[in-house]
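Provenance and format

Records in this collection were gathered into a single text stream. Each protein contributes a sequence line and a token line. The two records reproduced below are adjacent in the stream.
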Amino acid sequence: MIKIKYIITLLIIASTVSIFAQTSISGTIKDSNNKPIEGATVVLNTTSHLYGTTNMDGYFNINNVPTGNYNLIISHLGYKTIETSIEVNANNKTFSYTLQTDLLNLHTVVVTGTFNPRTHIESNTSVSTLTAKDIQQVYPQGTANLLQNIPGTFADASAGEVFTKVYTRGISAAAEDDLGWYYVSLQEDGLPVSLVQHSYYGSDLFHRTDLTTSKVEALRGGSASITAMNAPGGVYNFISRNYTEDLSGEIQLQSGIQGEGNPLYRVDGVLGGALGNDWFFNAGGHYRLDEGARNTDFTFSKGGQFKFNVIKENSSGYLKLYGKYLNDYTNRYNGLAATDWNNPKAAFGLDFNSTALMMPEFHANIPDGRNLNNTNSFDPSQGVHAKDLAFGFDVFQNLGNSWSFKNNMKFSSKSANWQTSISNAFVSISDPTVYALVSYQNPFPAGQIVFRDANSGNELARIDNTGVTSGEPSEYLTAGTLPNDAVMGTSTWYKDNDADEFMQQFTLRKEWENHDLNFGLASGFSDTSVFTQGSFAFSTYENNPRILQVTLENPGEPVMALSDAYGVSNYGALFFTNSRANITQLATFANDRWKLSDNIQLDLGVRFETIKHKGSNDRFAPFTQSGGLDGDENTAYDNNILQPTGEQDAFNYTYNYVSYSTGINYKITDDAALFGRFSKGHKAPELNYYFNNFANVPINKKGEVQDINQVELGLKSNLKDFSFATTLFWSELKNIGVTNFEFDEDTSSIFYTPIQFNTSRTIGLEWESVYTPLEYFAFRFNGVIQNPKATKWFIYDAADSVDTSDDSTTDYSGNTLPSNPKLMFNVVAEYNKNKTASFIKWRYMGKREGNVANAFQLAAYSVFDAGIGYKINSHLSANILATNLLNSDGLANFYGANTFAANANGATSEFIEANPDASFVVVPILPRAILLQLNYKI
């Protein structure tokens, strides 16, 4: 009995000791202005499961902490990390720390462009970070618009949220047309948004930024050759918010006006917290209605997305389940007509700030060339309807003995349906082209052509076009006329794109005293298809185009319908693509971070990549039946529908290459480092190579792999009130396949010219810096100065016909590389004191060559953005943002002469000299927009 009492007593004592040996610790984290920092992470030993995050008051609390000595790590994006030793006991349970500002996030851990997370200053790459604060200072006009704030990045958002262009360091040639992300990888949480690119199908279709994004990491060139899938030009990684200990979130209401008063309405929300038993969640998204920056008769963008992640932590790692559902409609702007080659001005009554020059809303049904018993509904107000359903798993585990692994995998199902216009050229009513497009393989419609407003049915104009084929002008037969005596040369652009994808990256890591070895496997699989169909459409050429119903009404003859009731003509006869492909991407990689000394670290990385493209294109031919599809001899619009012949041209090609990159980092001090890197990467062709270049001909050879060589030398420094990072670079791009989009007037057919393989080289200096003369003032300056050259460049001249007997090539070697400014920069002044925050930003875009002939230059322009915000209380704040405050009318792009299917390379010096008064097509930047934001933090 006594022994039992002793045992009970010992158990009680042991239990009491155990209870007293554990405690809770708490404290506050503030900045140098004594303001609380929300969202700071507090960790006790990286191998323990003891951590916390600060709330809106900067307060944190960690429970069940055994007494003892710990290595305390406090970190937050935008502040220098604190790492110190502490003792936790009954008398020492409250801690307070002040975080010093990290002006350029040089002491912040980055995960992009590296296999093992490290601080920016320790990395040997050119990487930049946009914080949540930076993102909130940008008017929400799409991904590319946001990336204009990254130094050294050329980002063209003039078309709107999609159909954008992003590239760096002159690695741009194949990204200047309709594959604007050709060389770079747009990523979400470390994996590409999409594996597939081809004409009018890029990753920006499936990406939107909202409150669920915590930061953006941007890697320019360098280690992208060994860390990204087929993207040697760089990586733009949008990193989602993770969990917080306490339930917290944010709701943001936005309302703005753009251009001539077009409204934007948007709501964003995000919520996260603990679910218990080491489970955490974060979820959010947005929805918007946007009338667009330019004037259209329909809503330009509508829709949104929902994203979530759920995390389960354990003593040695985590498991994260994440997903996204995007369902979004948006559109893209075409170019506008200008005259005066030396000082372009809007022509034909158009306006660079407000004109969209797009087909208005209408609802037509066009026979589907794949099956003429079916029709495709067509409505330009739909734009591009993008859907993306994705979910994935991210696993990290410490295996012990300095081994760990990470595996990130994602499944997605994507679709993009385009219903919009392609081209908006000026076509005179005296130009035979407009009638030839209707009458291909049929008698030319000569005589009295009647144009009616398709909506009202009212006759607008009646002309006699009898003499146009012999060079005589058309004549008006009544008082009615068409605006600018022209119609718009445009096509209904209908595309169905689908892709089911799986991608994965597995990394195994082993750490020694002087080595940090990472090796693994990346894979990607995509099953994709594309269908494209184009029909001519009649509309007026004016600020707000109207759809035209067109007939041929010669006296004594039956009325011939040249268009249907909606103005659509030549059903499905301008474009036809029906293709499918399976893509397999496999890569194995290894990277060693070798510590040569306390101050010198060497990076050695290699990647073997294999990419297989297997698929086929349908051959096609015009539908042949007397009277067309409907059998009616008096309806000319359905006589030439392109449809499959039953034959297919298959392709099955594999591209193998080895990329490598080596870098060195010399740590001068804790706040300064010098780095250098050499990289050799490659770029395999995208699917547009097969889909665009082999219409009705065998695909008898694989595409060329482009080679990218890059050298960079950089210096990073973080001083008390001044920080900077600067990189000198040299880059060379070889085997650039260049082809042009052409129109044959004799056959009314559209084709691509034979590919020419060229080389470019760019030398430049990138920089980003921050200066804070006072605690509440900051000045930021970033940009690039570069010299881009087309060292070897040939352009194929098809002489406006499919016939190759009169073709030639022109040598432009040594000219300046087009679409690359020699200077571009951002200057930002920020004020942040008490409850008020404001900024003003000057973005400068230098002069660019419009084409490789260097015959036309796009002038430099400046854009000013500004914003002011006020924190009403601890939960509520209000902000006003303005972009393009002075309504600058800069020009972002040049598309050549203002004729149907023209291209920039056709505007040579000889052409401009011979046509000084000709109109041409440019793409203006987006006009002024002002936005009111109300933020409520939970």
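Adjacent record:
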Amino acid sequence: MGNKEPRRTHKEYKQELASDSSQIFPEDVALDEDLRINADVDIREAKETFRGLMLNDENLTMELGVKLEIVTPFLGKCRPFVGRCCQKCTPKSWESFFHKHLTSMGFCNAVKITEKNTRYRGWLVRRLCHFLTVCDWNLSAEMPPNLQERLFRTQRVQDVVSPKGSGDAPGTNLSAEQWMKEIQRILCQIQASLSPFLLRFCHWVLLKFLNHMFLRVIVHKGQLEMVRRAGEVENTPMVFLSTHKSQLDGLWLPLLFLSQGVTMPRVAWENKTFTPTYRALLASLGGVFLPQGVGQRWDSDEGALSRAVVASYIEELLLSKQPLLIFLEEVFSGLQQLSPSSRAWLSLVLNAYHTGAIPDIMIVPVGISYEKTPDFIHWGQENPTQTIGLWTTVWTLCRAACRGLGCVRIDLAQPFSLQDFVMNSFFRQSSSKKLLEELLLPEILGKCSSILDYEKVECWPTSSQDVVALTTEEQVLLDNLTIHALSAGTSCSAIMAVQILSALLVHKHQEGVFFSRLMQDFVWITEEILLRNCDVGFSGRVRDVMLHALFLLRDCISLYSLSLGDILVAPKKTEAAIRELSQHSTALLPVFIQEAVGACSINALLVEMLPYLGSPEQLGDVILTQEEIHNKSVLLVQLLPKDFLLRQPCQSVYYYCQEAVDKLVQCGLLVADEVPSDHFLCDTAQKRFTEKLLWKATDDFGDSDSDYGHEAGKCCFKVSQLESCSNLFVFLCSLLGPLLKTLERAIAFLQELDFPQPESLYMEELYQVLMRLAREDGSFECANRTLTATAIRICKELGVFKEVTEEKECILHLSETFIAQENQKKLENFIHQFIY
């Protein structure tokens, strides 16, 4: 190996990573000699070994693909273009805002500022390029100077301040000047005047932080060009609907858009408790907030003026063509869970469209992918009422800048017209909907054989979403739009190497794995992701990418050098390590969610047959009909929330389950089989189900030579016994394991409490029980507040709890059905059948 090189700083390490991609380890150098890693690995020495990485950079084009040194990747010469809008819901937008040549424009590093980004050249310019570039950026326009008067003259506000209505001050008639002062007070809670100096200074500071925090901030040039063209051609306001991974997203995403020539959007911040100083700073940087009082019931007089002012403000904001950035997800959730705050802001946007104030709005879903989230340590443990201050944010930035977080990638999905979406959504709305309690309880309790040919009515968590009065049809439209945008934003998000590696360690190799085998599994998962038309956020040789991912996960894994010339990689069994690995691994759930539903359904069918077989080895001979797989899949799909499944509004539950089975056949997990007799070894299907299959009624290919034909309901399958398929089956089942286990434990916990219970107290007690069980068996992936809240939500939809509001607090009463422990046990067994 020669003399040991001097240790380098983090800055020097980053510079080497960003250098020419030819600087990689020679192929003939032994892996263990390069690493020299033991259980007590020195972080500084680890930095020496994790050099020469080839990740996405400004020179990467779509033609490069993913270079893997073990096997040729699927479609190895081109990356999939992700984020196409829905052809059913937005047919006019499908072709209008997409051009195939945009896919070949490659990537760029958004925070790499050089002399070329300025209008000047020279030695001094190269040292001041960040400052000069920020000074040249075109900041977003201010709101109209007479905004206060414009809001006062709107019909919505006039209905409140007129003598006929009591407004916010029942029984008093205020003068116009007094009403103007009240409107000004509310307007100050929503926004603040933009400070150009403060904007440029904060963006310059943030740009410095980002260069230390991340190796690269990757964006696709074609996606940026697509959004620019959509804005120029349509000349309509844009609303960016983004996934939410960190509290820092709202700070640096406007900076990203501004640096790439897109108008800086106003950021709709969540309803969290900010310190007054921090809130004032965010408002001066373009943030907007919901004012106090908007969370009251719509039919109450309290807060009526606040609701009228904020609704009129959004209309004025969109009329001035200023973009708006709304985060869809609950931050730190780790799951695809819609935020009540996002529904509040989207209801205001929809109201502006429905009133005719805005003819059309361009919707742009946004996906964010971190290799390591800046504040991931709070995942699943965040207290919703905690105060977020300026110094907390600064400390998070400093901590992330010192540690280094790898790369982050931003993906912009294809823009679509809200007008196009609304017209098609109203046309496609289904009237056959039932509550989950009506759909599943007969099946769970065994009272009768239910026919699940209805769509489930989603019961969203109540919060400050009733900002404006929406009809039932508009509420359904709001639900559909949020799920549609969240699905688009999540599907276009790239999968990072750290996320793949974490998923393998959590769901496949909990006890450890050899590095050589881990590389093979890494290639396998990468190919499976590309097969599903999803993109990955890395490129380069497998070994280099893996070393980079292991370095970023150094706090969660242990590395042991073996005499065999290989390295043992084992995840640590600590709470922090399991939480972090689980958080990273959830990024793969949207990619495999349909196959995971199908695999858990197959597992449930096999569990039913196990008592009737002589040994578990005979499960490989069990024959399953397509009809019974469908039936079991429908039960699971109805049980889980639609936002968790990312089931688009235009997809019926039957089409979703049909796709799940088709994908299991395509990946080889299910193998078609013929049975010589009419008697099946496993035949528990409901016979009416195939009459309701969506694909049978909408098959436009009359001459199709599909294997299913008109006797699709009689198609039979066996579970493949190949080792690769068995590994895939276990991997898919384990992806849904955390939520299903949490739900099962929540049902079992019912026997330990006396009801009624305040919902907040019950959630905290359940969380503490999950933590206690996790310390016993190491299942810390199940012990987080987001999964706890989702489990309680499912229980309420199933009718386990009845909600009663007392003194503005939700009280949970155990329903008469589930007072009996026998019914509790039936529900627990129903959920347990899907757990592998």
